[in-house]
């Protein structure tokens, strides 16, 4: 530690947010999913791993719903709507 440059006495604390946490986890899992899908080796086991990562992303999306995060797909329950929206957090899935 440099005595001429002490750390700030009151570091900025970011408040805990389970919504932010879920969104970060979804992003990180999607990055792993894309990495796994990019490998040329294909097997049943890897296909199952891909499915499970997709399921993890889906379950974290359900947790966002539980936490009261607004529905990013307002037309999703309307069978008359031709709109198919991309993922709200730009995941590639």
Summarize this, please?
This protein has 93 residues and is an all-alpha fold. It has two helices and no strands.
Topology record:
Layout: H1 18-38, H2 44-66
Helix pairs in contact: 1-2
Description:
The chain has 93 residues and is mainly alpha-helical. It has a domain at 18-66. Helix content is 47%, strand content 0%. It is built from two helices and no strands. Helix 1 runs antiparallel to helix 2 (44-66). The longest helix has 23 residues, at 44-66.
Key words describing this protein structure:
2 helices; 93 residues; 47% helix; flat; mainly alpha
- How much helicity do the residues have? 40-55%
Q: Based on Cα principal axes, name the global outline.
A: flat
Characterize the main sheet. Answer: none
* Uncertain runs: none
Could you say which structural class the secondary elements and strand pairing correspond to?
mainly alpha
- Rg on CA atoms, Å: 19 Å
Write the element-wise H/E pattern from the N-terminal end onward. HH
Q: How many individual β-strands? A: 0
Multimeric state: single chain
- Euclidean distance between termini CA atoms: 44 Å
